[in-house]
């Protein structure tokens, strides 16, 4: 393809060829840094060293030393995602894939294998699929959404409010997004601890990941069948009845995309926002004094800890330049919100409060910008506000430096967020949250519960509890207990995410 007449970075067309070790043309590691394994124990530090050495776009190596560019600059990330004529999400033209460097069992494959979803499409097909998704999401009643978030928050807090302690990651942040998304999609009856565990299990790539993924997909398939026969007023029905005429496979895959993406990103956002509320010096004082609102806290968290650190991937459709680097047709690039958000050209002081500024990269941009970002913001905003209303004296149980994180190229997860508070009484889930105290010697009136929850033992964190596998279909062959099966694509994905 012919290069653009004018290079977006302003670098002359007569610039020298690719530097030694260029990810598209190197013959080996070539001194390039790996974004996995021992080289990636501190990715934030590595990104800054790469920025100092290479500028806003740097050559790196992914798992199995697959070459890639990582885009570190804020402006360069925005240019890439907003330039569909130069960069595509369709990986079929990615040079390492065409040259056989990315094998079928490569841990990157779940991220790059093309699927019938708008995120992997472009042109007219992208417009058709994206229009259906955007229109379906646009039918959400925001007053109803607020009621759903408040009600779900009440239910979750009722599970632990009488104990005086909780882990806000495993008992709150990992449950609230799933509860709300099941309601939005039209399957509130499917929300329970098992659905949450299945989603977590499928994303982590454990030994039961395939069974867990099947469990979720069976629920989405059943929902698609029911709404195809009898549409109602929910996102699934509007997706099915849209003039774009999505088939059942397209509907199911977009429901999976909406459910998993919203769950993972919003769970991370909730946990990070709550950590900020509990640990930032003077933050609670600013909140209580009216100088900082919860929405501003959410935006600050999106700057400091975006739900995804990097996103794979974008692929060059032609020879071009970006950030002073010569990018060849077929090169792959990582969209990188985490290092882009701390680009010193737009944020000289990375510790400064951004005061509600929404120009961060957390939700992407351009034609593939996250269509559900307002829902994610609403779940985090209303959920955090409702939790603080119910538990105004909440405080961190451990020292901030004792909090544990699970970091990978894709994201940085808070493992747990243990808190203490004065025990509180349960509240009616159908009423707005309010402050209350627990009177241990006074009989409590029964609290209406619209959904069936697990028994009290389910209130404990379930980080290590494996999900019970779904019943085997008739005629299936049980897995052998003598030898472990080869890693599934979900296991390979999770190991890659963890940098193993």
Automatic annotation (TrEMBL):
Checking Gene3D superfamilies in the record gives: Cytochrome P450
Coiled-coil segments: none
Q: Provide any one GO MF term from the record.
A: oxidoreductase activity, acting on paired donors, with incorporation or reduction of molecular oxygen
Q: Where is the composition biased (Low complexity)?
A: 473-483
Superkingdom to which the source organism belongs: Bacteria
Residues covered by region (Disordered): 1-33, 428-488
Concerning its family, UniProt says: Belongs to the cytochrome P450 family.
State the name under which the record lists this protein: Cytochrome P450
């Amino acid at each position: 393809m012919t290069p653009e007449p004018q290079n977006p970075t302003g670098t002359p067309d007569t610039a020298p060829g690719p530097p030694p070790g260029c990810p598209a043309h190197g013959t080996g590691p070539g001194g390039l840094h790996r974004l996995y394994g021992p080289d990636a124990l501190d990715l934030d530090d590595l990104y800054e060293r790469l920025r100092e050495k290479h500028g806003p776009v740097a050559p790196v190596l992914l798992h199995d030393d697959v070459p890639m560019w990582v885009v570190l600059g804020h402006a360069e990330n925005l240019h890439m995602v907003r330039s569909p004529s130069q960069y595509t999400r369709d990986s079929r033209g990615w040079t390492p894939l065409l040259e056989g460097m990315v094998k079928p069992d490569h841990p990157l494959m779940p991220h790059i294998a093309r699927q019938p979803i708008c995120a992997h499409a472009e042109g007219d097909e992208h417009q058709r699929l994206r229009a259906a998704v955007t229109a379906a999401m646009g039918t959400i009643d925001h007053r109803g959404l607020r009621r759903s978030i408040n009600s779900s928050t009440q239910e979750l807090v009722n599970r632990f409010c009488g104990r005086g302690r909780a882990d806000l990651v495993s008992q709150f942040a990992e449950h609230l997004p799933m509860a709300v998304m099941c309601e939005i999609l039209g399957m509130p009856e499917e929300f329970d601890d098992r659905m949450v565990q299945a989603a977590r299990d499928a994303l982590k790539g454990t030994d039961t990941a395939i069974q867990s993924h099947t469990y979720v997909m069976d629920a989405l398939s059943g929902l698609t069948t029911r709404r195809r026969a009898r549409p109602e007023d929910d996102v699934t029905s509007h997706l099915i009845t849209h003039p774009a005429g999505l088939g059942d496979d397209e509907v199911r895959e977009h429901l999976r995309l909406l459910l998993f993406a919203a769950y993972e990103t919003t769970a991370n956002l909730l946990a990070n926002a709550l950590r900020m509320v509990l640990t930032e010096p003077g933050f609670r004082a600013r909140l209580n004094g009216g100088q900082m609102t919860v929405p501003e806290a959410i935006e600050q968290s999106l700057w400091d800890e975006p739900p995804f650190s990097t996103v794979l991937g974008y692929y060059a459709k032609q020879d071009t330049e970006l950030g002073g680097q010569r990018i060849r047709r077929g090169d792959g690039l990582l969209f990188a919100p985490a290092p882009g958000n701390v680009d010193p050209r737009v944020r000289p002081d990375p510790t400064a409060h951004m005061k509600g500024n929404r120009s961060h990269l957390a939700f992407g941009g351009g034609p593939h910008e996250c269509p559900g970002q307002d829902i994610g913001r609403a779940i985090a905003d209303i959920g955090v506000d409702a939790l603080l209303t119910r538990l105004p004296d909440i405080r961190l149980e451990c020292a901030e430096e004792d909090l544990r994180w699970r970091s990978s190229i894709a994201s940085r997860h808070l493992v747990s967020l243990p808190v203490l508070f004065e025990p509180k009484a349960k509240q009616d889930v159908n009423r707005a949250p309010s402050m209350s105290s627990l009177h241990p010697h006074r009989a409590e009136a029964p609290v209406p519960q619209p959904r069936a929850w697990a028994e009290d033992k389910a209130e404990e964190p379930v980080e290590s509890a494996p999900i019970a596998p779904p019943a085997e279909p008739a005629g299936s062959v049980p897995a052998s207990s003598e030898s472990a099966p080869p890693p599934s694509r979900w296991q390979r994905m999770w190991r890659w995410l963890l940098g193993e």
